[in-house]
Each structure stands twice: as C-alpha cells, then as structure tokens.
Amino acid sequence: xxxxxxxxxxxxxxxxxxxxxxxxxxxxxxxxxxxxxxxxxxxxxxxxxxxxxxxxxxxxxxxxxxxxxxxxxxxxxxxxxxxxxxxxxxxxxxxxxxxxxxxxxxxxxxxx
Amino acid sequence: xxxxxxxxxxxxxxxxxxxxxxxxxxxxxxxxxxxxxxxxxxxxxxxxxxxxxxxxxxxxxxxxxxxxxxxxxxxxxxxxxxxxxxxxxxxxxxxxxxxxxxxxxxxxxxxxxxx
Lengths: 112, 115
Fold this sequence. Notes:
The complex is a heterodimer. By secondary structure, chain A is an all-beta fold. Chain A is 0% helix and 59% strand. Chain A has no helices and eleven strands. Chain A is globular, with a radius of gyration of 13 Å. In chain B, a hairpin with a 5-residue loop joins strand 7 (64-68) and strand 8 (74-78). Chain B is globular and about 40 Å long.
C-alpha cells in the first residue's frame, strides 16, 4: 500500500521556472525523504527532513514539512532540462520499523 | 566505494516459473530492502533484511522470499510467477541507524517480464 500521495501527478515547465511538488501521507512519521528517478532506473536520494524540522535546503532544493497537515512540499528553483525525472516522497512510519514507504510520484518535464 | 549492483538487468520468464534476482550492497551497508515497481507506479516495499534476518515485510504473498548473506548481499526469489509480477525490481541498501533515518542507496533494478 502507498503511504504518500504526490500532487500533481505530472508537471511540465520551462527551463528557469520553479517546480513545486506536494506530498501527503497518512500516519505519523519519523522522517520524510525525497527521491528522484530517471527513466525507470534506480532512485537517487535527494533530501531527508526529520519530523521535528519544518524546512530544509540543499542547493536548488527546498523541502518543507507540516506534520499537523501530514504534508510536505519539494521546490526546485531555476529548473534545468536535466531535472526532468520522476520525484517520489517516502516516509518512515513510526509504527512500521525502518522501512521506507513510497508514494506514486510526480513526473516533471522541463523543456528548454 | 562501489554502489549497489543488481543482476540480471533484464529477464523474461513464463507463468509458473521461478526467478532469482541478485543484489550486492554498497560497501559498509548492513541492511537490504527490496521493492517492486510496476510501470507508472511508485516502488512497493516487499521486505527488508538486517543481519541475515527478515526485518519487515510489505503486503506480498509468501511466494516472494529472500535471503541476505554474511557479506550483506541478497537474493529475491519469486515462485509460481504470475503475469502481474512483471515489474522493475529494485534493491536498496542502507546503514541501519537507531534514529530510523535510513537513507537508501538503490541499484539500477532488474526488469522482469512474465509472459
């Protein structure tokens, strides 16, 4: 079963624009992570935010977490064509050990 | 430092057959997780191994089984293959942390097609 749900399912933007993806989840969590996947290959970890953190930055990435709303957002600033990929949020539910549970993903397409 | 390697990269099987997929963990990692990803979907958690024992399992039937070896490499076995088992199978390794903040390093996956 899916713990997280990303929104939108697909997003198309021009190079230089910002891309915002949202994730909602169902149960209380230990941490939330974002991963990227290119063309059905393996996933690559982007950023981790703990349940007691509200915002985190890494390069052009900004992640926010609102545990009261059980939601997170990933902002990619100044998008590049190379950012074209699928993006997944993943959570570690408090009551489910340490297994990461993934959402269905947002497919981002950045055109030049 | 080597990453996670999976084999084979692609394979085709017929219904009812059995398949074994292999995974070598990243150096220094002690936990292996397996995921199934159907086309257009997110990865679904199959199970996780820590110190050679199953340490969590998703909603998959017993015909999905696994092993972790002393060198932390792992196998995923699927018996009595069904058409719906066609998917990308992803192996991920991590270093177990008491805080639960385990970051996964994924392999490139094994693409299984069941005819």
